Amino acid sequence: MAMPTVSQIASVCGIIGNIVSFMVFLAPLPTFYKIYKIKSTKGFQSTPYSVALFSAMLLLYYGALKPNGIMLITINSIGCAIETTYLLVFMIYATKEAKVFTTKLILLFNIVGMGLLVIITIIFLKGEKRIAVVGWFTAIFSVCVFAAPLGIMRLVIKTKSVEFLPLPLSCFLTLNAIAWFFYGFLIKDYFIATPNILGFAFGIAQIILYAMYKGSKNKEVKQVIPDGVILDMTTLDNSKTNPRDTAAVLNEESQV
Predict the structure, then answer these.
(1) In whole angstroms, what is the distance from residue 41 CA to residue 86 CA?
(2) Is 96 exposed, middle or buried (0-12, 13-18, 19+ CB in 10 A)?
(3) Which residues pair with 234 in a beta bridge?
(4) Residue 68 — φ and ψ, nearest 5°?
(5) Coil, strand, or helix at residue 44?
(6) Which candidate, 90, 129, 187, 219, has a CA 20 to 30 Å from the CA of 162?
(7) Nearest Cα to 159, choosing from 223, 203, 207, 208?
(8) What is the C-alpha to C-alpha distance for residues 136 and 113, in angstroms, rounded to an integer?
(9) Residues 6 or more apart from 39 whose CB is under 8 A from it?
């Protein structure tokens, strides 16, 4: 039997990455079901979803520029649709102030920011240079997004509780990073491969933390949350807050 080619193995990794990324994109569904049930976004923020949408838009643009970028195009097209839906649902149930903030955020970040990047790279750059510049921009932004779970990891250490760290999601994120690392490595796209090294490292770190603190007695959350730490879109003054939703949203940002 013939051995699979590098291209075939890369395709398998890309398909696995697409499947796992799709499941991670759906991680915040319980949060939005909660918003739908209470008909209010009180205690929630839209910022993580705007960031996730920008990340998906960046990767979609990069995938459209590079040859054979279909694996990036498929999942990030779906990701853009999902994140846009989240933001639309948020806008339906948000307060007036939250709607104004979210509208400004989307206009400045997702429309103006992304629009300027596209226009500048199309007008002033061509061919491989355009792909390289967008690739660097995408890789740097991906590294920043992969650092998002640091707040949750620090909180787990402070509380000695894994209430904030859903193990299945951490495992999926680790698998996601592995799949996309090997996809990028095999097709020699280091703008994709390199950030996922960090994603893999953070995923393993979360699993180790879970093993270390599983079964530990919880501390009162409000007493240990550091000043200035934003736990995705959930605030602590909401008595119905589920910390697992918090972790899901922070981790959901960490995509391809």
Answers:
(1) 12
(2) exposed
(3) 44
(4) 55, 45
(5) strand
(6) 90
(7) 223
(8) 16
(9) 93
